[in-house]
Amino acid sequence: MSHEDKGKNFYLEMDGAMSYPIVWVNGKIVGGWPYGYNSFQLDLTPYMNVGDNQVAIRLDNPNESSRWYPGGGIYRDVWLITVASTHVGQWGTFITSRDVSARSATLDLAVEVQNNGDTKSKIDVTTDVHEYDAKTGQIGAKVAAFPQYTVLVAAGKTASHTTTTAVKKPLLWGPPPFQTPNLYMAVTKLHSGSQVIDTFETRFGIRTFAYEPNKGLIVNGEHIPIRGTNQHHDIGALGAAYNHRAQQRHLDILQSFGSNAIRMSHNPPAPGLMDLADEMGFLVMDEIFDCWVLGKTTNDFHLIFPDWHEPDLRAFIRRDRNHPSIFVWSVGNEVGEQQTGDDGAKVAQELVDIAHDMDPTRPVTASMNSAHPNQPFPVVMDVLSLNYQGQGIRDTPNYSQLGGIGTPPAYPAFHGNFSRKMLESSESASALSSRGTFIFPVLEQGDSAPVNDTSGGNSTTFQVSAYELYSADYGSSADKEFRSLDQNPYVAGEFVWTGWDYLGEPTPYNVRSSYSGIVDLAGFPKERFYIYQSRWQPDLRMAHILPHWTWPDRAGKVTPVHVFSSGDEAELFVNGKSQGRQTKEPLTYRFRWDKVVYHPGELHVVTYKDGKVWAKDTVQTAGEPARLRLTADRSKITADGLDLSYLSVEVLDHQGRFVPQATNAITFSVSGAGQLVATDNGDPSDYVSFPSPKRHAYSGRALAIVKGEKGQPGKVVVEASADGLASSKVTLHTIS
Ligand code: GAL
Q: Where's the DUF4982 domain (predicted)?
């Protein structure tokens, strides 16, 4: 601290630290915040000296603290904030819009001014509203101003005032493809006499949400079906440590199959992820807890719930409430309190009341996998969020041999009992698969079955078949989930478990990562990607054949062929011979030719929509691996030590055809102004450490993640090589 900074205030703000962080300054304890996912701020001012200061942070990460991989350490950004002793409080603005029309929108802004000084402060508060360009991060033209006012804030006190203004012809925030996620920036200034002593920026959006029990979510007057996925906080091979580009790539890939919504399962997300959701137009179900008083693992949040649920919930909402993307707060996931009658409902009510107190503009929910419509728990919720039970659990013949609770589809009963509440599926599917791995024989009866060694699974290789017909015992394939939504069109939509594979919780086999992703841990599309694309992007001309057609040991054997397409008819050709033209029957979501016999050559499909050719796909039998092909998602990255290029490598044969079962050992080398950060291949059972430069291809592919050296712009050469194969090189440029 310099002499000039004497009299100022110093805050340490942590976006998240796993877990139980305790902070000392110059050997004196300042405080802490146990929940490793929440953001918090500590006032360091009383402990600071002129000259050097030492900040020490201790973390404790007990075993059994979570049902998934929580990460460990200081895994999100940390900020040291220096402000005048009178300043805008932590997350101290709240901006909401009402009376929104094409002509104007009314904005209400509450500003909290905090005076930590020894004397009364007289402050003039001004706030201007500007357009904001999220692509460049530039604040644009001023479009409105809140009326200026003066506050007198006593020493050690906080004063909050609300003012109102209007924006003419507002540019609304809304999800693509039919709406645009426009943002604004409110710039608040605290003036003491002629001096500006604090400037505080609040990014926000103007939009309306309506929650229609018979229709679903209405955004700015347009019905938007929720096409969502669940998102754990890890970013694959990079672990839990937040990286903005990695997170952006996650969302890019979700958007590429038509997803428009994210559920933050089951904890406060990184602030950067919330920013990305706003910028890219994702609808967000923002969630805070996986358990309340009743725990799920020995050392999870239940240990501190009595003392911390209120501060945590208040901090969570206060931090995130200006994000236009959030349409609902979720205070819990599958909590045990669903089943403890009035006692459980009382806990739920307390949390819902706190959420309403912090934000009167949004509804509150908690995800229910077992609460029945006639129990007290759902009565407390503004929006009803069902996990799996909406579509039915173990209720179809293929699941009938399983133990465990069976539930008929619960959407009708919930809708019937709560005719004024919007209903959504907060977890659907839990379909399981390993990218590019197909296991025979293939299910013929029905389109959804639990995984076991005779049904889509192999407990020796730890893989699950990519025919995309198999699921967790309590889950279903995508087909069943789509059917249940089509049969109950009042349901607002769904959040699939999950968009991406994630670290930990690997059902059905005990490996490193999950099988439930629509894309694998490396971000490579599984076959399932295309069934979602066919439904969520109905206007996109697409057809996708599965399986691959390189089966040296299957000549003469029945090898079913399925096709996902946004078309309504399809004709399959095997080596030029038609296998028949099919029409997609109502409530079915794939074309299938179950009796195809494998002979090497070519599969070709032509799909039709309304009788006209719509989209085609071709798959050819590949030869032996001959070469590698390396491709970068971005060849120019910033030389800041954080920005990343993702390089995919594919194994090809002599003719340049993709070799779908290749497992060649690949070595990545990086030279020049960059470094290899991690590698992956999306194989849930691969235990090679993520930073390793050596990685086997899995189902023909592998991934390398490269960053530039900080402050050293230049060329980076990345090479992928493997014994006996022609190698491949890509040159990246890092720029300042
Ligand atoms: C759900 C749970 C999720 C995850 C999922 C696995 O019941 O809410 O957190 O455990 O099952 O399929």
A: 556-615
Give residue-wise pLDDT tens across range 54-69: 999 999 999 999 999 9
Q: Among the atoms of ligand 1, which is closest to the Cα of residue 67?
A: 10
Q: Are 222 and 498 in contact (CB under 8 A)?
A: no
Q: Which two tokens stand for residue 442?
A: 């293939």
What pLDDT score was predicted for residue 71? 96
Domain that holds residue 637: 627-735
Domain check: are 649 and 600 in the same one?
Answer: no
Q: 505: closest CA among 523, 521, 494?
A: 521
Q: How far apart are CA 211 and CA 65, in angstroms?
A: 35
Q: Which residues of the chain have pLDDT under 70?
A: none
| Distance (Å) of CA 74 to CA 31, 77, 495 | 16, 8, 29
Active site residue 201: no
Mutate to test the pocket of ligand 1, among 497, 516, 518 (most ligand atoms within 8 A of CB): 497
CA 448/CA 399 separation, integer angstroms: 9
| pLDDT at res. 236 | 98
Measured in degrees and rounded to the nearest 5, phi and psi for residue 622 equal: -95, 160
Residues 292 and 149 reside in one and the same domain: no
- What's the CATH number where 667 sits? 2.60.40.10
Does residue 709 have an active-site annotation?
no
pLDDT digits (tens, 9 = 90+) for 360-369: 999 999 999 9
Asked if residues 84 and 197 have their Cβ atoms less than 8 Å apart, the reply is: yes
Range list of β-strands (E), 33-157: 40-43, 55-58, 78-83, 86-98, 104-115, 121-133, 138-153
The Cα–Cα gap between 126 and 144 comes to 11
